Amino acid sequence: MSDIAIQDLLALLTIPGPPASESRVAEHLRRVLLDLGIPADCIVRDNAHQQSEYGGDGGNLIVRLDGHARGPRRLFSAHMDTVPGCVGASARLDGNRIVNDAPGKALGGDNRTGCACVLQVARTLVARKRNHAPATLIFFVQEEVGLVGARGLDLTKLGEPKPSLGFNFDGYHADVFITAVTGTERFTIDIEGIAAHSGMNPEDGVSAALIAADALAELGRDGWHGLVEKPAGTGKANVGIIKGGTGSNVVMPALHILAEARCHDPAFRKTIIAAWHDAFQRAAKSRRNHRGESGHVRFGPGPTYEAYALADDAAVVRTALAAAQRLGIKPRLIRDDGGNDANWIVAHGIPALTIGCGQRHVHMPNEEIDLHDFTRACRLAVELAVTG
Known about the structure:
The protein is α+β, with helices and mostly antiparallel strands. It has helices at about 1-15, 25-35, 110-125, 150, 210-220, 265-285, 315-325, 340-345, 370-385, and strands spanning about 45, 60-65, 75-80, 90-95, 95-100, 135-140, 165-170, 175-180, 185-190, 225-230, 235-245, 255-265, 295-305, 310, 330-335, 350-355, 360, 370. It has nine helices and 18 strands.
């Protein structure tokens, strides 16, 4: 299996698929699945992209494999999109790893490793000629921009009965089982300043850039950016995108920010966002032109997902632990401050565990894939699909 799995992975790594542009990846997977003998009407795409803030060229790819054996329907998932910095990557085998020969590019192991793992489930179950419990495979879109594809998942396309055990493949070591994940709220900040000619009459203007600078400096100084540790709780916050300005000769009239707050406690996450709101409002009021006019700030919502935590004795955890033991894998159950599609899978009512699949240094130019871990994850995915 490992040679086929590695070839599947290498093929997937060559296909560009940033968020909202995953259709080439989905079509490649569809062709492979059809070649395996899966009926076309068992391979569908939903319309998750139609509820996305980012649009998109298609929804989640869903594969229904209705086996004859008794047992709960199991869900196996991964996401097709990569961060935009992976477009143009050049994957190459280097011993027991896959590396990237394209300078300055990330490789895309996040999450083509997961897609290849789930593909091995399809290969194995097809070979069993329906002598398996029912399974549903999902290849999600738009994970990297806030789990948007998983949020919009069409549950009516998953098959009956509804899956009761979910296994999401995404992450680092194959012995890492993520049972709890933080919640994240993205939010927008739109700053309205006052335009003026920077050479002739700058005193008439109010710079949106300076309003942002004042607010961010305050947040950084007072411990509300980065790691946030307060008596009321702990979380994280970050400003990720800043866009604004029309030219160097115009006092910046407007600026757009995308930021986020992360916390396992939803109430404290709201506290973090409130601190950001207050800091930007103060900065807007304090920056005035010579006539006493000030700028304005407007906050808006972005993609949000809630935290979840599975009990160590939950059925999905016990099932994964038993499968790992049969393969000689000694898992570690961890809490994670990232975010993955399981946040929304759980919110949809399907207990889901996230399992690592060999990614290293994701989103970075030195990203690589550990093939020992990757093949272990593939074996685990298959074990979970074929055993009770």
